[in-house]
Amino acid sequence: MTNNALTPLADFTEYPVETMVQRSEDFYQQIKRRHSVRQFSNRPVDKRIIENCIRSAGTAPSGANHQPWHFVAISDPDVKKEVREKAEIEERQFYAGRAGEEWLNALKPLGTDDQKPFLETAPWLIAIFAQSTGGIEAGDNRKNYYVRESVGIATGILIDALHNAGLATLTHTPKPMKFLNEICKRDASEKPYILMVVGYPSEDATIPVHATRKKSLQDISTFL
Ligand code: IYR
C-alpha cells in the first residue's frame, strides 16, 4: 500500500434532521450531568471499562495522525499512594504561596486545598502524557505537531467516554507534575498533561456551586 492510499468513508451514519436535533439535545442533557468530583468511593471499577474509554480517547484527531499521547492507568494501591504523596508535596507548596495571590483567590470558590485523599480512594488514576516526538510507527522518533491540541482533544473524548460509561472524573493537575514520569516510568521527554481521577463518587459527594455556573449559549458563541 502506498502511504497516500485512500479508503471509502464507510462508517459515517446519516440521521434525519429531526433525529439529529433530538440526538444533539439528548447529548447535551447527558453531558451537562458531568461534574468534576473530589470525593470518590473506593468501589472497584472493571478494567475493561477503562480500556474501552482509553480506546475511545485514542480515536481523537491529532497532528499528522501521530497520536502523541500515552495513558498510564493506575489501580495498584501502592502506586496510587506514591502518586498521592508526591502530589501533596507539590500541592502544599502551591497552596502555601507558590501559586501567587491571584491564582489562589481564583480557586477560593472551589474550596480546594493541598489534601488529595481521592488519589488513593479512587480505583483508577489515568496519567496522560504528551509526546513531543514519536510518529505513527512503533519506535518512530519524528517531530509531533499540535501536541497540546491533540492531547487536549483526546482527553476531552476520554472524559466523555468515562462519563458515558457511568463514572465520575476529576481532571487533576498537581503542579508541577514531573514526578509522574518517574512513577509511571515514562521518558523525561514526555510531558505529564493531566492526571485523571476515575471512579464512583462517594455517597455524600458534593460539588462547588461555583462549578455549576456555566456560561449561556449567548455568552460563549456568536453566529454570523
Ligand atoms: N492543582 C491544584 C490547584 C487547582 C488549580 C486549578 I486552575 C483548578 O481549577 C483547580 C485546582 C489542585 O488540584 O488543587
UniProtKB/TrEMBL annotation:
GO molecular function, one term: oxidoreductase activity
Key words of the record: Flavoprotein, FMN, Oxidoreductase
Coiled-coil regions listed: none
Highest taxon above the source species: Bacteria
Stored Pfam families: Nitroreductase (PF00881)
InterPro entries: Nitroreductase, Nitroreductase-like, Nitroreductase/BluB
Residues annotated as domain Nitroreductase: 31-200
CDD domains on file: iodotyrosine_dehalogenase (cd02144)
This protein's name: Nitroreductase family protein
